[in-house]
Specification:
The complex is a heterodimer. By secondary structure, chain A is of the alpha/beta class. In chain A, 25% of the residues lie in helices and 35% in strands. Chain A contains 8 helices and 16 strands. In chain A, the strands form 4 sheets. A 6-stranded mixed β-sheet of chain A has the order 5-6-7-3-8-9, sandwiched between helices. In chain A, helix 3 packs across helix 4. By secondary structure, chain B is mainly alpha-helical. Chain B has one domain. Chain B is 70% helix and 4% strand. Chain B is built from 15 helices and 3 strands. Chain B has a two-stranded antiparallel sheet with strand order 2-3. In chain B, helix 5 runs parallel beside helix 10, helix 10 packs antiparallel against helix 13 and helix 10 packs parallel to helix 14. The chains are: A alpha/beta, B mainly alpha. At the A-B interface, helix 1, helix 2, strand 4 and helix 3 of A face strand 1, helix 3 and helix 7 of B.
Chain lengths: 396, 298
């Protein structure tokens, strides 16, 4: 079956005019020699979103993720490439998109729904649901210019999710509204997922991606640099972020040569050296070796353990564990010791890092190389083997 | 669950490709509900917070009527019988044309908020502007109808058959120009200002205040190069229904409208309609090209 969205070698060029001629006179005067810079917001991006899949698009500001979403929704036309999609699309690009301030909430709901392609009868059918979802029963006949930004966004979201789109495009909207409404939105998105609808979500929130998405794509400077499991994608995204920071700092020089503390190796040590896995409740040791060519006074070693979906299971560092090394110089070793690890059946990713106390400078990190492999005992199901015992009192 | 039915339903469309003019019209038709809603929105917003509301659109031709009656009939003594009827018969279609063009030209720029954030066939915006103008036209027709009743003035039943065709031709012509100008105006904001001047000149170049024969006597059928002339004289022929009048001061018979058959009028409309259709295809192609960067330019 065809995918829900096929993005095929899509590029988008913007022209940034230094002085933009607005009038005919200026245009004629400058005819043909209009100073502008070309800027590629998207470079040869290809990806597919399967029916019923939730894909997260992550990237820094200016990475092109919103441009891609706009191209998919049809608002912008790519300079080259093709985008194929099927089904009714609802897009939430910015909150209250398409709301007119002078019209009432009710009028805006009908206008908005007809933009998506609903008939009046369809809209009337879902109208009560929309209002109930937005919790705006008392205000629905007020012009929306009197709404608070929270009410505005609730109404916008309510319309988008109640028009039963086959394809929902969301840009950053989950970041607004109060917590209760956010939870409601996430819940509704989960319901969408269970109904087999397709969702494309642009977000800054790494946690959102981990929680909601089946897969994630990472854009950097307009290019697709990763597409895969949310956990992997998030790691790539962090890498890109890091590299950019370093290139910014060292003005393009290879940042790795400027590392003050380098992680030279790491190893996961199980209870039995001949067994390359862990049984629930067994102790574990993670050994990391480092090298500091010169003395470094501000240093913290950190460890994170993620599951395959990218959920953070544990995060700790030498500072929080009360093992501040003070200063380091030359090669050395850090050992994280777990008295017992209650993990069950699965592979867990270990990422290590060295940074300053305030986290402002990361000297080095190592991710995607070390894993903890855990087996199940079969006695209990799930991910964590809590120490558990059952007692049955048969009574008398 | 109806997941099976939902997945893969609906045609696969390439949103990155420019649709051809026919496809564009089909898209507009699919979004007709939106078109109606936007027309409604335009009307609502236009008279929001005004006490007289729709009465304003009736006052406009009424005022025009008073001014031109005074200037032409009393000051200049043009002497056309039932000048009010003659004038309104030409003014109303002209008003429809000029408001359509004026508001459709600014429609894309004026709805930047929508264009930047949601997708829908953008031609709907100029078309909605024309739709709103059409509603005003029908309201203003009430004024004309009242005038006919008050003066007990009989229009020509035969030529009235041409009115729907003339109206359609007018709308087609306005849509073609409006869609083209709306797209141009995004890039060249001068379009709207230039248009104001052009419309002013065009108004006087069209036999609305004066009669057709005043210029046709001098330049012959070249008058019909102005498409609005063919349309306006059809309205006048049907409603005003006189081709000549007897001037009591000079004791001569003066021509007002071409004394031709209904087929002659129909032929003129046909030519204008045909050209408008070609123009519309061109406008849609232009719109399609320029549309690529609307969201950036706005």
């Amino acid at each position: 079956m065809d995918p829900a969205i096929t993005v095929d070698h899509v590029s988008k060029r913007f022209r940034l005019y230094k002085e933009k001629p607005e009038s005919l006179k200026e245009r004629i005067i400058r005819l043909g020699r209009n100073p502008y810079e070309e800027f590629w917001a998207l470079r040869d991006v290809s990806l597919e979103v399967a029916h019923g899949e939730t894909l997260g698009l992550i990237g820094q500001n200016g990475s092109g993720k919103s441009t891609l979403l706009k191209c998919i929704s049809g608002i912008l036309r790519p300079t080259s490439g093709s985008i194929r999609k099927s089904g009714r699309t609802a897009a939430l690009l910015e909150l209250g998109s398409g709301f007119h301030p002078d019209l009432t909430g009710r009028e805006n709901v009908f206008l908005n729904a007809s933009i998506i392609g609903l008939t009046k009868r369809d809209t009337a059918r879902i109208f009560d649901d929309v209002v109930a979802f937005a919790e705006l029963e008392e205000f629905i006949d007020l012009p929306v210019k009197h709404y608070s930004s929270g009410m505005y966004s609730r109404l916008a979201f309510a319309v988008a999710v109640n028009v039963e789109p086959e394809l929902l495009l969301i840009d950053e909207v989950l970041a607004v509204g109060d917590e209760a409404f956010q939870r409601k939105c996430v819940q509704r998105i989960r319901q969408f997922q269970s109904e087999g609808r397709t969702i494309l979500l642009v977000t800054h929130g790494v946690e959102t991606v981990r929680q909601i998405c089946d897969r994630a794509a990472v854009l950097d400077h307009g290019s697709l640099i990763a597409l895969g499991e949310p956990g992997e994608a998030v790691l790539v995204f962090r890498d890109a972020l890091l590299q950019r920071e370093h290139t910014d700092e060292a003005a393009g020089a290879d940042w790795r040569s400027h590392q003050q503390v380098r992680i030279t190796g790491a190893e996961v040590e199980y209870l039995h050296p001949d067994r390359r896995h862990l049984l629930p409740g067994e102790p574990l040791r993670i050994r990391m070796t480092y090298d500091a060519p010169a003395r470094v006074d501000d240093v913290v070693f950190a460890i994170n353990i993620h599951d395959q979906q990218g959920n953070l299971l544990l995060g700790a560092n030498t500072d929080s564990l009360g093992a501040d090394p003070g200063s380091v110089e030359g090669p050395g070793e850090v050992v994280f010791e777990f008295e017992q690890v209650p993990l069950m059946g699965g592979i867990y990713e270990v990422s290590l890092g060295v940074h300053t106390h305030d986290g402002g400078v990361e000297y080095d990190h190592r991710a995607g190389e070390d894993v903890i492999e855990a087996l199940s005992t079969g006695k209990v199901a799930g991910m964590v083997s809590f120490p558990i015992r059952a007692k049955v009192d048969p009574g008398s | 669950m109806a997941i099976e039915a939902r997945t893969g339903s609906g045609p696969v469309t390439d949103v990155a490709a420019r649709p051809n003019p026919w496809r564009r019209l089909v898209d507009v038709w699919r979004h007709r509900e939106l078109l109606l809603n936007l027309v409604r929105k335009e009307l609502k917003l236009k008279y929001k917070n005004s006490t007289l509301g729709f009465l304003w659109s009736l006052l406009n031709p009424a005022l025009y009527l008073v001014v031109f009656y005074f200037v032409f009939q009393i000051v200049l003594g043009a002497g056309l019988p039932y000048f009010a009827i003659f004038f309104l018969a030409g003014l109303l279609p002209w008003n429809l044309f000029s408001t359509s063009l004026g508001s459709s030209t600014t429609s894309v720029v004026g709805n930047a908020g929508l264009v930047k954030k949601v997708w829908f066939p953008r031609e709907i915006l100029p078309l909605a502007a024309i739709g709103a103008a059409l509603v005003h036209f029908f309201l203003q027709l009430i004024v004309l109808a009242l005038a006919l009743v008050i003066f007990r003035y009989p229009p020509s039943a035969e030529f009235c058959l041409l009115l729907p065709i003339a109206l359609l031709t007018l709308l087609l012509f306005a849509a073609a120009l409006g869609i083209g100008f709306a797209a141009l105006n995004v890039y060249l904001r001068d379009t709207q200002h230039l248009l104001e001047l052009v419309l002013l000149a065009w108004f006087w170049a069209t036999p609305i205040v004066y009669q057709y024969t005043k210029i046709s006597d001098r330049i012959g059928n070249w008058v019909l190069l102005n498409p609005m002339t063919s349309i306006v004289i059809t309205f006048q022929r049907a409603i005003y229904n006189r081709t000549t009048y007897y001037d009591t001061t000079t004791k001569t018979t003066v021509g007002i409208l071409p004394d031709e058959s209904i087929w002659w009028y129909l032929r003129n409309l046909g030519i204008v309609g045909g050209c408008s259709l070609l123009l519309l295809v061109g406008a849609l192609l232009l719109f399609g090209r320029l549309e690529d960067n609307f969201a950036e330019e706005l």
